[in-house]
Amino acid sequence: MPALRSLLVLATWLVSAGATPPAETTPPASARPAEERPEVPPPPFSDGIFPCSGCHEGQPPNRTRRPLTDMHDDIVLRHDEEHRWCLDCHDALDRDWLHLASGERVPFEESYRLCGQCHGEKLRDWRAGVHGRRVGQWNGHKRYLLCAHCHNPHEPRFKALAPKPAPRPPTALRAQP
């Protein structure tokens, strides 16, 4: 009991002295246990586009926000485009990686961590198997699809679908005049 009282006094003193607990940081993927890293299939890259270093290696990064005209001109950014640009997610120095807001580099196979920075509720639901596709055992091994398997990361909203006509009842059930 005296040890618990001492701990409480020390904690009260630290809080009143303005001490703040150390900020939580996400350890790099290699340091995290495998059970925290969901199994996912490879990202759905377009043919011939990965590794990005095949074209970008040795190119100095151009951080100027601009329409892309030489390459990737088919990409239309409709994902918070007023505040976001390519290098907000893609690593400027090594294009074979993405990066979090903290600067920590993440592989494309862990892109869900990048998406989850802004879409935390969706990430939680994805891990629980409520959002997106998860297969496996309810209490054991699970496999997931990445966000990019269903959403285009540059234009994530699904395009509107044209409504289909109402179903028609079978001929035998239609009212006879």
Structure characterization notes:
A hairpin with a 5-residue loop joins strand 1 (98-99) and strand 2. It is built from five helices and four strands. Mean pLDDT is 78; it is low at 7-11 and 17-26. The strands form two sheets. It has a two-stranded antiparallel sheet. A two-stranded antiparallel sheet has the order 3-4. Helix content is 23%, strand content 6%. The longest helix is centred in the N-terminal third of the chain and has 15 residues, at 2-16. It is mostly helical and 177 residues long. Helix 3 (111-118) packs across helix 4. The protein has helices at 2-16, 53-56, 111-118, 120-128, 147-150; strands at residues 98-99, 105-106, 134-136, 142-144.
Radius of gyration, in Å, reads: 24 Å
Strand order of the largest sheet: 1-2
E-strand count: 4
Query: Strand content of the residues, in percent?
Result: 5-15%
Intertermini distance = 89 Å
Shape: extended
The structural class is mainly alpha
Q: What is the succession of H and E elements?
A: HHEEHHEEH
Low-confidence stretches: 7-11, 17-26
Largest sheet: 2 strands, antiparallel
Please provide a brief summary of the model.
This protein has 177 residues and is mainly α.
Topology:
Blueprint: H1 2-16, H2 53-56, E1 98-99, E2 105-106, H3 111-118, H4 120-128, E3 134-136, E4 142-144, H5 147-150
Antiparallel strand pairs: 1-2, 3-4
Helix pairs in contact: 3-4
Tag the structure with descriptive keywords.
single chain; 177 residues; mainly alpha; two-stranded antiparallel ribbon; two-stranded antiparallel sheet; 23% helix
